[in-house]
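Hey L., structure's done. Input below.
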Amino acid sequence: MIDYYIDTNIFLNVIYKEKAFYEKSKIFLKKIHNGECQAITSSITLLEIALDMAESDYIELIDKAIASIEDIQNLEIISLDKTMVKQAAVFLDKCA
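Output:
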């Protein structure tokens, strides 16, 4: 059973060591890695991370950051197909 969806900001908090969020985000990701919970993220999240890091001039660290995320145990990285994207768009439209 999946407990959480992890969005881009959680990973970026750890990558950039954001003062206000780094420790909690790091602990959260460790809990997932240690099997205390299960989580998913999307392949789009990895793309967003790479784009953000490139824009922030951390191009040389992108591969390492993505590999670190891919190595997190109990984290499934899912691809989004057309149906999932449409469902997400409908959900976002309802939230707006």
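The chain has five helices and three strands. The first helix runs from residue 8 to 15.

-- N.
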